[in-house]
């Protein structure tokens, strides 16, 4: 579905992404794992059309994405849930959800109900202002809002950040469910254990480069990954 080849992205004079290459097969969960500054978020934002690449190629179902504006990329079925949730705090849960469908012109009722089945807490709070939700509820809302665009590829940037272990477990359970419903997932995450546990395939990034790759299970058992990311 998605193929990134020799991607290079600079911030000022700093090369944040250095010739990264990876693939995301249709129907899979693929994760990029690494510490802060590894280039993970920059890679997602470049795929989403928010950051300009200096070199390389990003193809989606055989079509080149580099140079296309963000709204065109969303129309093709790629949606990014950004780090930090970024919900609209002075709008209700339901209004936030509907904004996720701004490019659609069909009925939304069935999709809203599906999102409420995935996130029952949102249904309980659908008239509540998003800014009054807890961090975990805002993360659920950000994911629900993204799903309202009917993505074929859902990109998640640090969905577990700032959440309690119980909520992290719940969020990753929902990621699996979304994938079972036919949505391909590209996940960026510092919580290596959670990310590798759900991933069909994974790439380890360090300072803008891919240094290891394999199935999620292979990397969970890799001594280097255990030492660097899983506490030995």
Number of helices, counting only DSSP H or I runs of 4 residues or more = 10
How far apart lie the N and C ends?
A: 34 Å
Quick one: overall form?
A: globular
- Uncertain residue ranges: none
User: Biggest sheet, strands in spatial order?
Assistant: 6-7-8-3-9-10
What would you say this structure looks like, in words?
A six-stranded mixed β-sheet has the order 6-7-8-3-9-10, with helices on both faces. It has a four-stranded antiparallel β-sheet with strand order 2-1-4-5, with helices on one face. Helix 3 packs parallel to helix 6. The protein is of the alpha/beta class and 232 residues long. Helix content is 36%, strand content 26%. The protein has ten helices and ten strands.
Keywords:
alpha/beta, 10 strands, 232 residues, 4-stranded antiparallel β-sheet, single chain
Topology:
Blueprint: E1 2-11, E2 14-24, E3 29-33, H1 40-47, E4 55-60, E5 63-64, H2 70-75, E6 78-81, H3 93-99, H4 109-118, H5 120-124, H6 135-147, E7 153-157, H7 165-180, E8 184-189, H8 192-198, E9 201-206, E10 209-214, H9 216-220, H10 223-229
Parallel strand pairs: 3-8, 3-9, 6-7, 7-8
Antiparallel strand pairs: 1-2, 1-4, 4-5, 9-10
